[in-house]
Amino acid sequence: MTTVAPALQQRSATDLFAHLLRHENRADPYPAYEELLRQPVVQMDDRTWLATGHREIGLLLRDPRISADRLNPQQQPIRKSLLMEDPPRHDQLRHVVTQQFIPRIMGMRDHIDALVTALLDAHTSERPGQLDVVGDLAYPLPVTVICELLGVPREDEPLFGALARRLTRGLDPVSTQSEQEIHELQQARTELAEYLEGLIARHDADDRDDLLAGLLHGRSPDGPMDPIDLRVTLGLLLIAGHETTVNLIANGTLALLRHPDALARLRTDPDLATPLVEEVLRYDPPVQMSGRSTLADIDIAGTTIPKGARIRLLLASGNRDPRRFPDPDRFLPDRADNAHLGFGGGIHYCIGATLARAEAQIALTALARRLDSPRLVSDPPPYRENAILRGPERLPVAFDRLLPDPRGV
Fold it and tell me: How far are the Cα atoms of 269, 361, 372, 379, 397 from residue 264, in angstroms, in the given order?
């Protein structure tokens, strides 16, 4: 385990959680997570519960007495995405989406590989160079992929950068957001809804064969998706379909550059990419926590979480639980039995996990192969404001030159 800063020792769960939310601690939240692990389930002063242990989080993710509605599962004033729906409605929506989504992402590895190659080739030079792994690779790669899948015109892709930033900030607790950010969040929701309505209308008028068209015209045994559900689902796929992957690639790059032995191994053994990405998802997950609420009293870890309580599942602390992972603070690229919580669990397990894994495996392998003597320009790099979707704002990497692809492609 890491050495917990004396200032964090014996602090209350309320204070430790507040520490996690402060931006100045974004570069290294793990000492606070370690201290929180002393109690696998604990209540804060505002009566919100925290689940920190791997076993306890896993149990709660799979408990039917847990609602995905973070606010009030008894009220449904607005249509929600499948991420915040419970069975049977969640199951119906997820089935419709997976019927269209999963077949379309199978066999995409060659295309993803070509996109990564093109993004890196933009920096071809015999001279020393520098790239921002976030802006030059980790962001444009998944954005291009999800836009292609949905049939979003290429010229519209830049729209989602600003919108996604404003929308994902809304995932963090309201107490951490300024009035300006809350106002921008409402504006972003309106702008995205208006854009998606226009996109749906254009697809309805044209004969297309993309994911949006499949959901719109019901090319599945479940038939077409309700218009409001379609708009909400498209928004989820567009934003969630790239935001977490941006952080996964950036966090993976950070881990490699801080662990030169792992970088050297990946450079010569591309098969290492598969377990290595799983270790990134455990060691420095792009989604640090998730929210739930209880539909009934739940006895767990020697305490009772009452019906109607709000729970925060601290995925990042569960991923570093020494009761589940030996030497949890070490980055081990071929760690065995790596049952991490990086994609959640239970019925809400990340629907895009297969695609995110492929994008990260290919991108990290290409960086290892093609950047000659890569090194961080600043460590730690500047981090985004978000506490829940945690990742670098920018990740400048200097290198001596961009090497040709060793595969000759």
Answer: 9, 15, 11, 20, 16
